Amino acid sequence: KGVPAEAPALVTAYRAQFAEDQRELDGYLSKAEQGYPFSQALGEPHALITELLGIQSTAALIGAIKTRRDDLEDYLDLREKLRNFYKGTQVKIFDELRQGLRELDADLSRVNRTDLLERLQKARQVTQSPDPVKDIAGMAGHLKPVLAYVEDLLKEAKARVREVLESEVKRLQAIALELGPEETSKLTQPILDVRGRLDSAKTIDAAESTQLAVQQAAHKVEQDIIRAINARAEAEKRRQEESRRKEEERKRKEQEGNKATGKEEPEPEPHPEPEPEPVIVTRPIRTIEVKKVSSKTYLETQGDIQEFLTTLKQQLEQAVQSGERVRLE
């Protein structure tokens, strides 16, 4: 009663539009849950559209549309703003700012320039604003100077650690030289693996932390090299002892055979013995930890110094007299 003849068709169109609006608003709400703006502004319009969709009577729906006209006009303004934000360049700038802040998060404490700190503050304000539309214009590339600054700091940190790493690699390769290239390559691989970690470091903290990894790997590799050298020296010593034992056994059997047959041993000719071929001997390595030479934490008197030097000298001489090389630590 009192409803125009064209009302049913009009209401059907309204319902279809409201259903589409509801789906669109659901999408915006989902975005808001992911950290995008407008979460506070979406509640009332979503409730309005849901309310209108719930009205079954044609006359009641037309009446509600008239009553809520101002609210619907406010919603249409908001919808236009949302569409401009998500379908234009604004959301791209917003994503760029968010991504830039994420990348900088681990190294923010390294940024100390006032101009760059101001840029960071502005980016935070925009990405945390419930409605960033007014402020986001012109902010494309806003964090590029900060990112470039931190990238330079990262390169410098990597260069410092790489210098230490390459120095350690050369030192260890020199120690392992007598083991041959194949075994040297195998033994030094752990410290070479740190190089890969350094190259892939994305933050300054990650790059600097690899310096500790370099030191730890270098210590382990050096110990492994020394063990390998000492094992080779021990094996060579056993081989020489076995060779000497066999030679003595051969001479003994030869003498016994001569005695059994009554054959006299020939007089040795009076010419000098030929020079023996030089034998390359792998000398083992002994590590002397200087800090453990004395039980005292501090050397405070001339007597303390003399005692320390005397003990150190004794350990050094003992190692050299045993045919060992000395590595001080």
Shape: elongated
Element order: H for helix, E for strand: HHHHHHHHHHHEHE
Assembly state (oligomeric): single chain
The main pleated sheet reads as: 2 strands, parallel
Task: State mean pLDDT (0 to 100 scale).
Answer: 87
Helix content: over 70%
| Individual helix count | 12
Tally of DSSP β-strands? 2
Radius of gyration: 42 Å
Class of secondary structure makeup? mainly alpha
Binned strand content: under 5%
The residue ranges in which pLDDT falls below 50 over 5 or more consecutive positions are none
- CA(first)-CA(last) distance: 103 Å
Strand order of the largest sheet: 1-2
Describe the protein:
- The protein is mainly alpha-helical and 329 residues long.
- The protein is built from twelve helices and two strands, in the order αααααααααααβαβ.
- It has helices spanning 7-33, 39-53, 58-67, 69-87, 90-104, 114-128, 133-136, 144-175, 181-187, 189-200, 204-261, 302-321, and strands spanning 285-288, 325-328.
- Strands 1-2 form a two-stranded parallel ribbon.
- Strand 1, helix 12 and strand 2 (325-328) form a beta-alpha-beta unit.
- The longest helix has 58 residues, at 204-261.
- It is elongated, with a radius of gyration of 42 Å.
